[in-house]
Amino acid sequence: MGKSLLVGALLAVSSLSFATRLTDGKDFASAAILREYPYIAPGDDSLLAPNEFSSTRSVTALVTAYTSSEDETDSTPYITASNTFTRDGIVAANWLPFGTKVRIPHVFGNKVFAVEDRMHPKNDEKLDVWFSTKEEAFKFGVQKTRIEIL
Q: Which of 25, 28, 80, 128 is placed for a possible disulfide with 116 were both Cys, Cβ 3.0 to 4.6 Å?
């Protein structure tokens, strides 16, 4: 009886030690996401019931605007880095995989955007929204806001 209690205690202590090293102090559910996408933080689940979890993640980032102009892009301004055509609902981000869906709720409400383009490496931490005209892009400007990763 004493031997099994001792073995159980050793297993419990070693598993706690392993979990701490594995997740660097983060809860296990968030650890994999945070390692894969370091800019993503768990979303605000404060309005959910105690046993509910929101799969939405959010991050505050600098959001800029761009158009299909060679002075802003490259020699194929209407083709995105993922080889699709530029259109409404496209964003460029180096820190999210192609196809990731995002929302920018404080600016665009519930509109969903898709990551299909990339930016110059100096803009690694930004998100760039595509607009059809320079006037719209200039009007949008630069905004620091919350982005929801869906």
A: 80
